[in-house]
Amino acid sequence: MDNQKDIEFILGVIGGEPSESIAATMNALAAAEDLPELGAVSFSPFIPEDLDRAEEMFRALTDHADELRAAGNEHDQVVQSVIVLATKNAMTSGNPDMVRFALQLFLTHDSSGRTVRIPSLLRRMNLATPPDLAAGIEGAPSVGGSTTSTDEDKVNWFREDPLANEHHEHWHLVYRSRPQFSPLKERHGELFFYMHQQMLARYDAERMAAGIGRVVPFSNYTDDITVGYDAGDLIISGQQYKPRPANVAWQNMRDFSVADSIINRNIISQDIGSGTLTNAQGQAVPLSGREGSDIIGDAVEPTIKNINAQRYGWHHGMGHVFTAQINSQGPQDFGVMYHTSTAIRDPFFWRWHKNVDTFNEDYQNSQPSHDFSDAPEGISFDGSTPLAQDSITILNETSETDRLFTELREGVFRFTNGSAYNYNHIWHEPFSYQFSLKNSSVTTSKVTLRLFICPRTDGLPLEADPQLNDRSLWIEMDKFVIELNAQSQESFSRADVDSSVIRRPAINPADVTDISPTAGAPDDFLCECGWPYHMLLPGGKDSGMNFALFVIATDWEEDQVDEPGTCGSMSFCGAVDRYPDKRPMGYPFDRPLEGSLVEIATQNPNMALREITIQKRRSTEVIQP
């Protein structure tokens, strides 16, 4: 059985061909049935009815798998039969996109499904105009969209990165918003906000480096969207995307109007301001702590736990749909915002999510500041300055301190038929952190180290830099547990490839071989979840861009952070059943700071602050897989 081959064919890998059994199934159906036109019905996971249908199909696939396992079938036999069932449904429903999505859910969450892999998005990309096989690498076309703004085009490489798009797609597969026969993953609503906010912080850093300013939230829903976007010849899983022209506004749809979204937005904002949301029974639900972010996230995304769907609507998802269906003329006539695998390519995605994040930001700003009174007893960074500068350093691969290097590279991906396309991506030299900590207590202590970086304002000293006090600019880089012996001073090293933020094991764009699952491991699906390793560092500037590096040590007994696993992002994807950290996501930058960060770091020995520089080099090297 060649299940991986069949999965690649169904999910649109270029050059993929079905096995004999799947080909026979398709031929038999085509001969015996009066089949609807494939693609006659559109699908988007941002439309509640569409997502409900996909969940129903997912359940049909998993029920079928359960029956086969109960009858004693092995995993490969189960998967083969599920693929046949999915193929039949794709052909008879006229909605292959919905079936593909349900099949991806099966491959992500089912124990048999996880024995094969969802092929990398790089392998599912294609061009409407086939590349010239005779042109070779030098004549390969470039894959990537364009905007109507020369400023926005400066950061196209970030939005178009295939593995960044794959991260967004896979997060939404792992964190299903409407599971119909299993519980919602713990703290889903809070993580919906946090993961997207961290993407925004990274995107803002790239925009600041390019000199084009931070993302402006789309707050007036009747305004024209000024910047247009065209995905060009890009095709993913057989779908080509319609260009979105500049200076066009959202349009009313058959079942939902722009006015409805404005009403939902105003009600959500009003209720957050009052400190309570209202459930379907008309009862006030108080908002407090990280649980408040979770409740709001479930209402805004929304998830199946939206406490009042009639009152709060389908706010975040409808923003995607309104944008994707501007000037739509048919079921397959939509833009990249329609799908999780392509949405972040559109510069408007970032404006929309900056607006969505405002709900959580306003709520968090209403919360009391952390007083840091629960710092681990006796733990301090051992530095020679009030800010413990010497107790944390960052080393590049030549052991130079505090200066890291990136490159904007041209990558080449080859299709199985011999043709190729080019794409731009950032790359960074490997780096590591070095820590020196002191434990003056008489007991061994476990602490959690939380690392962040923030773009600096040129020409200002740390203590005068307002950007350090803007919590939305801080980018989480890592979070991990160490153990300190009693009454000791110890040094630790931490490599970039071990980051809790990235998809692990770390992979480079030049290596698009799919991760091989470990047989029987319950968290295989987490391996594809996480921010791309090659984008862990912001790109910086050619002349060098200054950042602040901040680390805080917190008490593991209070945090209960699990030891990192071998794959997946613990910060962005949590664990199989629960998020492995009791503190609010993004702590300590989940609340407004009481005073300046420099003052806080000076007053708290469990914190350290340091300046670093990230310099972007221009590379002429072509990276080939």
Distinctive features:
alpha+beta; 18% strand
Q: Strand percentage, roughly?
A: 15-25%
| Biggest sheet architecture | 6 strands, mixed
Distance from first to last alpha carbon: 27 Å
Shape: globular
Helix content: 25-40%
Give the spatial strand order of the biggest sheet.
11-10-17-16-13-14
Strand pairing plus helix content: what structural class? alpha+beta
Number of E-state strands? 17
Radius of gyration: 25 Å
What is the tally of helical segments? Answer: 18
Mean pLDDT: 88
Ranges where pLDDT stays below 50 over 5 or more residues in a row are 515-523
Describe this structure in words.
It is a single chain. This protein has 625 residues and is of the alpha+beta class. It is 32% helix and 18% strand. It has 18 helices and 17 strands. It has a 6-stranded mixed β-sheet. Helix 10 (188-210) crosses helix 12. The longest helix is centred in the N-terminal third of the chain and has 23 residues, at 48-70. The protein is globular, with a radius of gyration of 25 Å. It starts with a helix and ends with a strand.
Summary?
The chain is an alpha+beta fold and 625 residues long. It is 32% helix and 18% strand. The strands form five sheets. Strands 11-10-17-16-13-14 form a six-stranded mixed sheet. Strands 8, 9, 12 and 15 form a four-stranded antiparallel sheet that branches. A three-stranded antiparallel sheet has the order 1-4-5.
